[in-house]
Amino acid sequence: MAGGRAGLAHLCGPRLLNEAVKLSGTDLKAALAREAETLGFDCLGVTDPDAVGNAGKYFREFLEAGAHGDMDWLAAQPERRMDPRVLWPGVRSIIMLGVNYGPAENPLALLAKRTRGAISAYAQGDDYHDVIKKRLKALARWLVAASGEEVKVFIDTAAVMEKPLAQAAGLGWQGKHTNLVSREFGSWLFLGAIFSASDLPRDAADADHCGSCNACQEICPTAAFPAPYKLDARRCISYLTIENKGPIPHEFRKGIGNRIYGCDDCLAVCPWNKFAQEGREAKLAARAELQAPSLSELARLDDAAFRALFSKSPVKRIGRDRFVRNVLIAIGNADDASLAPAAERLLDDASPLVRGAAVWALSQLVEREQFDALAAKATGSETDDDVRAEWHVARPSS
Q1: How far apart are the C-alpha atoms of 8 and 23, rounded to whole Å?
Q2: How far is CA 54 from CA 58, 59, 204, in A?
Q3: Residue 315 to residue 262: CA distance in whole angstroms
Q4: CA 73 to CA 139: how far, in whole Å?
Q5: For helices 368-379 and 385-394, angle between their N-to-C axes, nearest 10 degrees
Q6: Could you tell me which residue, 240 or 23, shows the higher pLDDT?
Q7: Quick check: 222 and 232 in contact, CB under 8 A?
Q8: Any residues with CB less than 8 A from the CB of 218 and at least 6 apart, and which?
Q9: What angle do CA 315, 317, 320 make, to 5 degrees?
Q10: What is the mean pLDDT of the chain?
Q11: Stronger pLDDT, 214 or 286, i.e. the higher one
Q12: pLDDT mean over 32-57
């Protein structure tokens, strides 16, 4: 990095020992980079508050097209995202930081194991929001002590366009899959931001190095990219399995395969990932029980068991019902009739969302005669319109 991207090692040295000595400019930035490395950050860069540039225009077009789906929080006060000074008028420098989370195994390999659930690599360990925010706050406290200036900390739940800012800070570029790509860490970077009232030396923006590659566009199972650098979240498996609160639309169910929380396909196929080896020691630890969980076992989760299994995990935020909905879609895609009993047990679940997904799963796994018998038994007592619709679609009247 020009001051940040080429790695932090060349800036290593003793930590700032005398916090009463206030630093500024190049000295402050160098000491900041050393402290960031000590705290576990893999890259750092600094940019201007007005560096969002044309990304603000594209973001507004994204909202106007309705491509954000039900993510109303994205559309709330968009001007705060498009101009960091609206978020905080006192900001003079934006410090962008990255933490590598490159998985030890290729996530695409698990997609062939149809009776196992695929959880996105970032969600296989503790919630990165909590892990990274702790590091950001520690670095922010250090920066206040070192500079005497006010700071504010943001991670991706805040109204910050972190990917365009990260590109402007030299950490990588926003690839055709709309995520950040790094020459050092591929498509596997968590991002965080510190807004500072200090005037720090800027890094040069990174250039786009995607070239003619369209691998991330071509691999998407649900055609969520209408064009390079454009995403329709409504078609994205990450949106469908995480943000979407209702039944998963029929047109996308087969494409979801065994992905039960998020999707790594467009990230995992990126050719730049082959250069990500050097940062792998900094990845966040994955839990063994979340790397290839059994679909039949996951289908048995009640609320208490779900909360216990996903304690401290980002998966916990979607709740048991939406998660089991996802598991049932994967069961329906498994092409394994031995999973049918796991789905049948859930036809009486208290959640209509789960019951409806169970109907679809069974429609994919059992013979017509058996399905008709289940339908005859269930439809007379079913009161939820969405579940009744699932039975009707799966078993249309002749």
Answers
A1: 19
A2: 6, 9, 17
A3: 9
A4: 28
A5: 160
A6: 240
A7: no
A8: none
A9: 75
A10: 89
A11: 214
A12: 90
Mind giving me the DSSP string for 316-348?
A: GGGHHHHHHHHHHHHHHTS--GGGHHHHHGGGG
The separation between CA 219 and the C-alpha centre of its own chain, rounded to angstroms, equals: 17
The label of the residue with tokens 């097209």 reads 65
Question: Phi then psi for 57, rounded to 5 degrees?
Answer: -65, -45
For residue 149, give the nearest of 195, 193, 192 by alpha carbon: 195
**CA end-to-end span of the chain, whole Å?**
66
- Whole-number pLDDT of residue 9: 32
Average pLDDT over residues 59-73: 73
Identified catalytic residue from 48, 156, 199, 386? 156
For residue 230, the tally of other CB atoms under 10 A from its CB is 16
Tokens (6 digits) for 201 = 């030396």
With H, G, I as helix, E, B as strand and everything else as coil, classify residue 173. strand
**Confidence at 292, pLDDT banded by 50, 70, 90:** very high
Look up 303 and say whether it is catalytic. Answer: no
| Euclidean distance between CA atoms 330 and 335, whole angstroms | 10
Supply 365's token pair: 């796994």
Residue 5 has pLDDT above 50, yes or no: no
344-371 residues labelled b (16+ CB within 10 A) or e (exposed) = bebbebebbbbbbbbbbbbbbbbeeeeb
Domains and CATH numbers, the chain: 9-103+125-196 (3.40.109), 294-398 (1.25.10)
List phi, psi (to 5°) of 230: -130, 135
Q: What is the pTM of this model?
A: 0.89
Asked whether the beta carbons of 16 and 188 are under 8 A apart, the reply is: no
Q: List, in order, residues 6 or more apart from 56 with CB less than 8 Å away.
A: 81, 82, 83, 161
* Mean pLDDT, range 181-209, rounded to an integer: 95
Residue 62 has a pLDDT of 72
CA distance 237 to 257: 10
Query: Which class for 396: exposed (0-12), middle (13-18), buried (19 or more C-beta within 10 A)?
Result: exposed
pLDDT tens digits, residue range 94-142? 999 999 998 988 999 999 999 999 999 999 998 888 889 999 999 999 9
For the cut 80, the answer to whether the pLDDT of residue 271 exceeds it is yes
